[in-house]
């Protein structure tokens, strides 16, 4: 499984991922509908803000924040942990191990292959956001747009790597889905997905700064809605990519050890 063979095969794997997303578009639509929580929270928080602002958030600020949250969630989602658990349980992982490409690259390609479909879902929401709140919430500093692109890539990588790391645990145990459920619950609570991070109590906000969840949703949303200047955004970007590096190291370590365990027991 050389890097060269994986790099050569990756475009073909991406095309296969796109084909699978098209073939299973009904399942993809169900996944999209299951990620509409930001739209629910938009309605709730907007109703609260009609009475009085919450922190710096007025009604329009909440609209901009949660529409951006919906878009970021669509473009950075991953489900590799569920796929890995299924393939370990059914023995299909053995087929991946026989291919001349790294299995983790295959899971990444499958997730990326669904991106065009998710972009199609996100574009109407982006249009609604521009129509309802205009462009005043968007960054004026062109450098922040570059930060946002890297923040989105970092958010997707953390989400994917967390899935791959937890999925690799299924090589040691009967199923790691319950571990994924715990991670997802923490993600929902601490990422800024249902409550903006800056509205957390100070001690929780201080803790969230050093956890990965905020960098999966809250950070790219904050950059997109002009919550930070360039200097602060760069500090947060450095923290996010430190998590990317740490999650990558953890994922590779769990995968290598789990693969040996899987092969030792005749998987």
**Mind telling me the C-alpha Rg?**
19 Å
Portion of residues in helices? Answer: over 70%
Number of β-strand runs: 0
The average pLDDT value, as a whole number, equals 85
Q: What is the makeup of the main sheet?
A: none
Explain the layout of strands and helices.
Elements: H1 3-23, H2 25-33, H3 37-51, H4 59-76, H5 80-90, H6 93-98, H7 103-113, H8 115-133, H9 142-168, H10 177-190, H11 202-208, H12 218-224, H13 230-264
Detailed description of the structure:
- The protein is mainly α and about 270 residues long.
- It has one domain.
- Helix content is about 75%, strand content about 0%.
- It has 13 helices and no strands.
- The longest helix is centred in the last third of the chain and has 35 residues, at about 230-265.
- The protein starts with a helix and ends with a helix.
- The model has no long low-confidence stretch (mean pLDDT about 85).
Brief account:
The chain has 267 residues and is mainly α. 75% of the residues lie in helices and 0% in strands.
Observed structural traits:
267 residues, mainly alpha, globular
């Amino acid at each position: 499984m050389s890097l060269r063979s994986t790099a050569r095969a990756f475009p073909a794997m991406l095309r296969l991922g796109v084909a699978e997303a098209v073939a299973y578009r009904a399942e993809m639509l169900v996944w999209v509908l299951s990620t509409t929580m930001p739209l629910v929270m938009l309605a709730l928080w907007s109703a609260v803000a009609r009475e009085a602002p919450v922190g710096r958030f007025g009604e329009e600020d909440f609209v901009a924040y949660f529409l951006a949250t919906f878009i970021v969630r669509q473009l950075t989602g991953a489900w590799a942990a569920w796929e890995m658990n299924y393939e370990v349980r059914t023995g299909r992982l053995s087929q991946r191990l026989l291919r001349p490409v790294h299995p983790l690259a295959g899971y990444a390609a499958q997730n990326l292959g669904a991106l065009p479909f998710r972009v199609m879902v996100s574009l109407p929401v982006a249009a609604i956001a521009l129509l309802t709140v205009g462009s005043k919430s968007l960054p004026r500093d062109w450098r922040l747009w570059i930060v946002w692109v890297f923040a989105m890539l970092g958010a997707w990588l953390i989400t994917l790597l967390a899935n791959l790391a937890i999925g690799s645990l299924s090589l040691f145990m009967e199923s790691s889905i319950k571990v994924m459920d715990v991670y997802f619950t923490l993600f929902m609570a601490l990422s800024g997905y249902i409550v903006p991070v800056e509205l957390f109590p100070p001690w929780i906000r201080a803790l969230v700064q050093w956890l990965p969840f905020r960098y999966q949703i809250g950070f790219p949303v904050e950059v997109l809605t002009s919550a930070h200047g360039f200097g602060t955004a760069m500090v947060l970007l450095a923290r996010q990519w430190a998590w990317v590096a740490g999650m990558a190291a953890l994922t590779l370590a769990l995968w290598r050890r789990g693969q040996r365990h899987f092969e030792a027991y005749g998987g």
